[in-house]
């Protein structure tokens, strides 16, 4: 079983930044609207969305690695 190293972490962060950059480039008005929506959302909703996102991300990584 291979452990996830710092190189893999940096690749993941790099991919995230590329995708975020592409969204800001292609859809700036939508991203602005999404940020305004996040600012007005209650903390518990943001926490729930963040937790679900993290769990889905971990499951995706686990599925790809196994």
From TrEMBL:
The chain crosses the membrane at residues 7-25, 45-64. InterPro entries: DUF2065. It comes from the Bacteria. The keyword Transmembrane helix applies. Keywords: Membrane, Transmembrane, Transmembrane helix. The keyword DNA repair does not apply. This is DUF2065 domain-containing protein. It comes from Afipia massiliensis.
């Amino acid at each position: 079983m291979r452990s996830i190293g710092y190189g893999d972490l940096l690749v993941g962060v790099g991919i995230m930044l590329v995708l975020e950059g592409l969204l800001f480039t292609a859809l700036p008005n939508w991203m602005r609207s999404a940020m305004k929506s996040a600012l007005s959302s209650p903390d518990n909703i943001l926490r729930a969305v963040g937790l679900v996102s993290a769990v889905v991300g971990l499951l995706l990584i686990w599925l790809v690695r196994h």
